[in-house]
Amino acid sequence: MRSLIVLAALVPLLAACGTSEEDHDETAAAANYMPPTVTSRLDFGSEIERRFHAFDTNRDDKITADELPERLKPMIARGDENGDRALSSQEWSELLLDWFDRNDLNKDGTLTSEERETYRERHPRPVQTAR
Q: What ranges does the record give for the region Disordered, renumbered to this chain (predicted)?
């Protein structure tokens, strides 16, 4: 009798454990979930310095086009204020802080993932063709 009661209690539990198409979709969506991010201007400033040193592979305190990936090479022309075809730490910082300020749409000193997405939608990158 006791085993019959246990069996009667287990049947509904096991039936509830099945996966439906909806459950599968929710699981897949959760696996691809990217939590929202918030970056302050101060935190971004420390990231700027770290990136500068990561790109300055020859440690000459400037970034030249040969030290940047292809998609970032146009930054040299945009940020080179003294015409030496390189970015000093100061030029690099000013360029990236300008990017931060343009992306900070509500001008509150923080950059959210939603603001970055909105900026990307308004300013799509040109498609680069393979050579």
A: 104-131
